[in-house]
Specification:
By secondary structure, the protein is α+β, with helices and mostly antiparallel strands. The chain is 21% helix and 27% strand. The chain is built from 2 helices and 6 strands. It has a 6-stranded antiparallel β-sheet, with helices on one face. The protein starts with 6 loop residues before the first strand and ends in a 22-residue tail after the last strand.
């Protein structure tokens, strides 16, 4: 996927531990998905042997960088203004957002892996103009079987 250098691309990870069915999880996430209109979304039940319980969502959200309060500003200040609005919407603390050294991306993690988010949001990865999980662009294709990782 290609994005503009004026876009903030975010991966939002959510975990609803207290729901028991996929239907409950989807109903809980529907307002968020409707509002943010992700370009891609993946929903799944947490693996029974994994760290997380309940249901998981991974949302790829693209939004234009907002102007900071000073009428323009640097990419970093526009990044912070955009992330702040998103964090508030997710029920996370904007002050916990840690920018990268270039000031074009960063991460927001819920304290202790649990936040006050009604959507179970626990991680937001953000990067200006590219997918934070695929900054080189293009599709990833791994030919190796992965046996050496077992």
């Amino acid at each position: 996927m290609h994005f503009s250098s004026d876009d903030l691309v975010c991966r939002i990870a959510c975990n609803l531990e207290q729901v028991h069915t996929a239907d409950e999880a989807m109903r809980a996430w529907l307002p968020l998905v409707s509002e943010l209109q992700p370009v891609s979304a993946a929903f799944e039940a947490a693996h029974p042997d994994g760290v997380r319980r309940g249901f998981l969502a991974d949302l790829l959200v693209v939004s234009p960088l907002q102007e900071d309060g000073a009428g323009g500003g640097s990419t970093r200040s526009r990044l912070l203004a955009t992330v702040e609005a998103l964090a508030v919407r997710l029920g996370l603390a904007p002050a916990d957002f840690e920018t990268d050294e270039d000031g074009v991306g960063g991460a927001l993690k819920a304290k202790d892996g649990k936040g006050g988010s009604p959507y179970g949001a626990y991680l937001v990865l953000a990067l200006t103009g590219v997918d934070p999980l695929n900054p080189d662009g293009g599709e990833k294709d791994y030919e190796d079987t992965g046996e050496d990782l077992l």
